[in-house]
Amino acid sequence: MNSHLTPGAGRYAPSPSGELHLGNLRTALIAWLFARGSGRRFLLRVEDLDRARDAGTADAQLADLSALGIDWDGEVVLQTTRAAAHEAAIAQLSSAGLVYECTCTRKDILAAPTAPHAPPGAYPGTCRDLTEAERAAARQRIAPRLPALRLRAPAGETGLGFDDLVLGHVVGDIDDLVLKRGDGTVAYNLAVVVDDAAMGVDQIVRGDDLASSTPRQILLQGLLGLPTPPKVSYAHVPLVLGPTGARLAKRDGAVTLRDLAAAGTSAGEVRAMLATSLGLAEPGESVTPDQLVERFDPAALPREPWVWGPASA
Ligand code: GLU
Deepest of 21, 51, 251, 311, by most Cβ within 10 A of its Cβ? Predict the structure, then answer.
């Protein structure tokens, strides 16, 4: 297939954990600009695995994206509707001998001696090579809690690199990551990889706080036979910082569209402010979403975090 005739897709994948703030909105706008600027479809996925009951929050998030002028193609995908595909991926890894049960608590993991050359914080491998009898005993010991499922990562490989459109070459840790938690929730890393591939996403733009998860996700793509870079491109974009220099948070003042509207700033003015922060508009200039797509140049994207203060509004 000629990839020029079948452009892929970009996406934004918010967790419905509250209203989107300026940092989230700016990342969404950048993801939309990357996709629209490259002729891709733009898809939305609500990552509600942890928060299936927060559906109302997701609606408010979608309304805010629309108000900014961010549009998307097709139906919004709710991650909780994708359980069968997540289970199928775990079964596929399991039948390749790449899944094992883990009964460790966080405390067990912290207390265990780390393997030589293992990246800091990596799972120490306590449950990796237990016999069937040892596993049965461990299961019994933690009942009624259930074991988590972990990936048996390739032995001896502790790092994986990829080329990021913003960060350049990034090398990050890989380890025996959790695929499914003891409470039955499928892990973010597994779900994101399975869902992006199923949705035809080949351009992943998100906050740079997630860059360290990407090597684990690329490892999973490879083991599941899904497209890996360079077929999938990554752009991890700088976060927005609050006036104290820490990552922007709701306590930093009027940082949601609702707060800003209450303070007299319209969604169009917020779009203009975000555009200015991206070097796509002059301060105070009002811009349409189409103008932003025309002006957007991925190579000119600011590499530094944007520090927001009430004076930016
Ligand atoms: N749901 C994640 C978040 O809101 C983003 C996942 C992703 O973009 O891969 O932080």
Answer: 21
Domain count for the chain: 2
**Any ligand 1 atom below 6 A from CB of 210:** yes
pLDDT digits (tens, 9 = 90+) for 147-201: 999 999 998 888 999 999 999 999 999 999 999 999 999 999 999 999 999 999 9
Residues in binding site for ATP: 250
For 261-284, the pLDDT digits (tens) are 999 999 999 999 999 999 999 999
Which region, left, alpha or beta, applies to residue 264 given φ > 0 means left and ψ of -120 to 50 means alpha? Answer: left
Q: What is the pTM of this model?
A: 0.94
Q: Is 192 in the pocket of ligand 1 (CB under 6 A)?
A: yes
The annotated binding site for L-glutamate is made up of 11-15, 47, 188, 206
Whole domain around residue 18: which residue ranges?
9-75+238-312
DSSP letter (8 states) at residue 120: T
Are 201 and 43 contacting, i.e. CB atoms less than 8 angstroms apart?
Answer: yes
